[in-house]
Each structure stands twice: as C-alpha cells, then as structure tokens.
Amino acid sequence: MLVADGAGSAVNSREGSRIAVQTAGDYLFNQLSGLKGVHLKQHITAWEGSDQQATINAMLHHFKQAATLAVNSIQNEAICAEQPVKSYSTTLLATVALRTDNELFAAAFWLGDGAIGAYSPSGKVRILGNPDSGEYAGQTRFLDQSIIADPSFSGRISVGKWNDVSHLILMTDGVSDPLFETDNGLRSDEKWTRLLDELIPVLTDASIAPERLGDWLNFFSTGNHDDRTIAVLW
C-alpha cells in the first residue's frame, strides 16, 4: 500500500504524488511478484535471526530502489513539461505486507508527514516510523535526490512481524493532523482506538468498503482542509 501528498504550495504536486505512487508501487509489485518475492516469503515465514536480517536488507534495497525510480520519474516529467522539479514536491509512505497464518508481516518506508500504524484489537498501536515535522505547521520533507543520498536513509525503514495486529493503516497528513494533532498524539493508543471505532463499521462489508471509506474521509474538522488519503489492510 502507498499514499502520497503533494506540497500545497507546489503547482504540480498532485502530479508529483501520482507519479511517486505509480512508479514506486509498480516497482515493488513487479519485484515481489517473482522469484525475489518467493525468497522473501521464505525468510518471513521462518523469521529466525538470519531471516530477519535478510528481510531487513531486502526491504531496504527495494524501498531505496523504489524511491530512486520515483525521484527519477518526477525529474523526467519536470524536464518534459519544462517545469521546476520542486513544483512536483510530494511525500511518500509505502508498506509491503504479508499475512502468514495468524501473523502479519509489514515493512514500511516513511518520507514526510502523515502516519503509518499497525493496530492491535487490545488497543495497542505500533507506529512504523517517524513523521518529518518542521518547526512550523505543514513543514515537512519531500521526495528528492537528497533523500536518496542521505546516509540515514535506512532510518526511514521499519520491519516487523506480529501476531496481534488486526489493521495496518497509512494516511496522509490531511487525515492524521485532525485526528492526532501532534507527534505525541500520533503515539496515543487512545486516539488510535477512537479511529478504529469509527473505521471498523465502515469496513464491515469489503465489497462497499472503498465507497464507505471515501464517505468517511469527508469528516468535518475545524481549520483542517488538506487533501485526504487513507489506505487500510484488515
């Protein structure tokens, strides 16, 4: 699952977010649908010490490649359109997930604001990364070459496997800001439980869940008018 949010001040940011999701998503799907995906699944299923390290190494490679391709695609579009590449500024949040028996494996890449959470019915939430928050409201990091070259790129990757996770949720800041308000709020089990209390009835019938989730995204929140995107695995 992937979500992205273009910078509000960048005129081509919606196209930038579309390109980022399409490019990174296509790469991850193609890579993990073949033999590499088979080998990765074997490590995830076994999940011993060496398997965990092999999985971390593989996901770091795949997420870095996906981000690099997304950056290159945005740069190519900017060149063709004769537009500044910064006008395509976008965040990017991505997960690769696999259910094995009663367990959920998830690997996450987090660039920018928004949220990625793995929620347990007990009310516990695991936040799969850290939002890039600036000194001022709405200030964050966007996908570009400096992100790829950053020696701390691996810090944007989270990998885990749990037997108590019912929902994996990605959202842009248009959803996370009104729901959690602050970085501390993002780590509040109580706030996540309130969110799931609203989402679970919406997701009851999988055949109409996308439409009902779209309706839910229209919730009113004073002072919050940003574009909203959410993706849920349950």
UniProtKB/TrEMBL annotation:
Assigned keywords, A-Z: Plasmid
Gene3D superfamilies per record: PPM-type phosphatase domain
Pfam families cross-referenced by the UniProt entry: PP2C_2
Cross-referenced InterPro entries: PPM-type-like_dom_sf, PPM-type_phosphatase-like_dom
Domain PPM-type phosphatase, chain residue ranges per copy: 2-218
Protein name in UniProt: PPM-type phosphatase domain-containing protein
Species name: Escherichia coli
